Amino acid sequence: MHAAVMIPIVSDVFQCRVLGPGxxxxxxxxxxxxxxxxxxxxxxxxxxxxxxxxxxxxxxxxRLWFGTANDERFIALCRARQWxxxxxxxxxxxxxxxxxxxxxxxxxxxxxxxxxxxxxxxxGGRLWWGFLTSxxxxxxxxxxxxxxxxxGWRQTDRAGERLTNDRLSGAVTKYAAYRGTSCRVDVADxxxxxINGLKVPAVEGAIGALEDMRRAVLDLMQLLQWxxxxxxxxxxxxxxxxxxxxxxxxMQKTLDLDLVLPSTGExxxxxxxxxxxxxxxxxxxxxxxxxSGPYDRMFYVFHSGxxxxxxxxxxxxxxEKLAEMVVNAGLATWxxxxxx
Length: 340
Hints:
Elements: E1 4-7, H1 16-19, H2 24-32, E2 43-44, H3 53-59, E3 61-64, H4 71-79, H5 83-92, H6 97-112, E4 118-123, E5 126-131, E6 138-139, E7 145-148, H7 170-173, E8 182-183, H8 188-195, H9 201-221, H10 226-239, E9 243-246, E10 257-261, E11 266-276, H11 278-286, E12 297-305, E13 314-317, H12 319-329, H13 332-339
Parallel strand pairs: 11-12, 12-13
Antiparallel strand pairs: 1-2, 1-4, 2-8, 3-7, 4-5, 6-7, 9-10, 10-11
Helix pairs in contact: 4-5, 5-6, 9-12, 9-13
């Protein structure tokens, strides 16, 4: 694992069920109280080039090792909390004063964590998190020490959504590239909110605005004349990479648009309806086998009504999906101009 980050926790935000029933971390969070000070935040790498990733994930542990020549001495000093003498040990092994002090501080934080610190790490393009149990650190057969993560590492937020790097702020994912052993974290509040399945206020506001826009677009599409609606559908497909080969509505009843996807050569045709039903769609599906042309699939597009099919050759684009596509394609202004 690259880096495990110790984050301050606000007890009234983190709920017991996030951590799993009865785990020690959850009990400690409940005991903190709403006004309790926040614990320190740190980041520690687990293994050179992620060499401990599989073991730490599968066993639900965190490992720590600074490559000391005398592991028994290192562990004895840590268990005795003789941190000044641990610094001397690092110095005796050739570490600079600053490095020896840093190693000691990082080791101390690892040994003295009482289970109230949230740890995160990045692996496989996702953020993983967990809390340590209260059990003491134990020697590892390959060197250094390890501690157990209560309930094992988790990779989802409270809502069950995976915490993938592409859905996280770069202010957090930058720690995935950290190559030291430990560092301070400056985005603790954001990480806590994301693990709790919460968005920052600005993001929540933007999501609400987008939803309002989609609802408005849904209403506006129903005001379009049929020919304008067909033009809108054509624009939507062209912004998605499809290229119109011809407008065949006047030539073949089943077809309104003939499309090709240049990147793959895939051919498709589109049937555009203002209002429709599943029964009407079934009639069109029934004509597919007798349709001439090199088509791989059919799109059935409408802005009012409901229609569905189990035929895997047909992709149904109804009102909600169309509204989303219009907003994502930046065509809301075009639509507004057509109905104003």
